[in-house]
Known about the structure:
This protein is α/β, with parallel strands linked by helices. The protein has helices spanning 28-31, 37-42, 45-50, 68-84, 100-110, 133-144, 235-247, 265-276, 296-301, 311-321, 328-337, and strands at 5-12, 52-61, 88-94, 117-120, 154-158, 161-164, 169-170, 179-180, 188-190, 196-198, 222-227, 251-257, 281-285, 304-305. The two termini are 38 Å apart.
Amino acid sequence: MPNPTVHIIATGGSIAGVGPDRMDYTLYPEIGDHLTIEQNLARVPEIGDNFNVIAEDMVSVGSTAIGPANWIALAERIHAIDRDEPDTAGIVITHGTATLEETAYFLHLTVKTQRPVVITGAMRPPTAISTDADLNLLDAVRIAATPEAAGMGVVTVLNNEIHCAREVYKANTLRVETFKANELGFLGYADSDHQVVFYRSPIRKHTVETPFRVDGMSDLPRVDIVHAYAGADGMLIDAVRAHADQTGARAGLVLAGFGAGTFPPAVISAAESAVAGGMPVVLASRSIAGRVVMTPRKDEQGFIVSDNLMPQKARILLMLGLTTTANRNELQEMFYHF
Length: 338
């Protein structure tokens, strides 16, 4: 049988980073140099021995520089590959870890394909001793070529662990086991015996089951996140509202609160004013795990609750939701289904 075909889209990040020496694990982002995807692949000849790889560099930046315009471009490129390369088994995206979880969730909600889409990165650059870049790239290609990964939506892999894009988050600043999935757990392994093994699949709707279509868009509605802290007032919320009023663009707000979604009184007062002015406001939590649930008072105040989406994921869903509707009840239903 011919080797399966996998298409790799590279965007830079630590997985392609170049440090000043083999002992460097921290300075390479400030240097800003990156390997091309072909140079990354040359480090792992086993990929070429076992897979037919098509590779391209879309951008070459740290993921702190990636945002909605790049997300839209990635979705459009994935759709083009899905349309024009019928023999491609799956697609891999290499990405910096800082915003990897956000890019992954955006694509999880917007790409219209059943083929595997796998995002990977690294915590140690290829130039460092004990880099994780090479194995993560190999694992991503292995997963993308695995038929069992089809229909799972967008998944991520680092440290051999396969995560659902909806739940994955970066939990550690430097360790290779940084990506976690709160209390829900990861999906499976790209394991040491060269097998890709899944133990569960995502239940929330994704990819072909969502209404979100971004091809042809140049940007998304603006949504900001304001975090609660002891003694916080309404200043930041008022600033978000003022900016929206000045631009006249559709905008929304996510509040990252305490525990199950509580806030200082001044924050809630400012947020209620924002809702009264027509701005959708989603209540999320600073906590890593658990739900923010609707209560009669929150409902009366006009808020939307995030369910168990972390603030950065709630922001993405609200941005996409605002491309289809401004109705509060319809937006709330999205948080219950996606």
